[in-house]
Amino acid sequence: MGDTMDHSAHTEQHRQHREQHHGHAGHAPAATWSTAAQATLHCLTGCAIGEVLGMVVGTALGWGNPATTLLAIVLAFFFGYSLTLRGALRAGVGLAAAVRVALAADTLSIAVMELIDNGVILVWPSAMDATLGEPLFWVSLAASLAIAFVVTTPVNKWTIGRGRGHAVVHRYHH
């Protein structure tokens, strides 16, 4: 009888351990809000780097709003993919597979984040015309990224729950 209880307790501990590690050892990651928020924060980091760099470069070069916004979006995708690519390569994944992982993990997340982020800036009065030296530029950018985070987190939860999106990245974590 004691062995049965010990075995049941051990099995339950093993199940909990797998869930805590969100998909290690080939299991699908848990589609928790925490996992989704972490995936979204990862995406937000790349998007924010790209957005700010794109705005700084576009403004410094004297480009108009459409060209500067396009540059910021391209750089958001570039940096978002780059962060995932770096992690996959560090995990020992080959370059071609790492590129596929980054594309699978981040495309929808970055696209939603950029759509919301740029949409908020577009409808925020005077935000599109604010310069880097104005508080409105930074306040509207921070608010738009925060709103994009809130909207993108459920998208990431949904994709992770289906074994897609950032669930693909978790297969390579050690």
Automatic annotation (TrEMBL):
UniProt region (Disordered), positions on chain: 1-29
Location of the DUF4396 domain: 32-164
Basic residues compositional bias, start-end: 15-25
Segments crossing the lipid bilayer: 63-81, 93-116, 136-155
Keywords associated with the record: Membrane, Transmembrane, Transmembrane helix
Pfam families the record matches: DUF4396 (PF14342)
Residue ranges with Basic and acidic residues bias: 1-14
InterPro entries recorded: DUF4396 (IPR025509)
Name under which the protein is recorded: DUF4396 domain-containing protein
Protein species of origin: Streptomyces lucensis JCM 4490
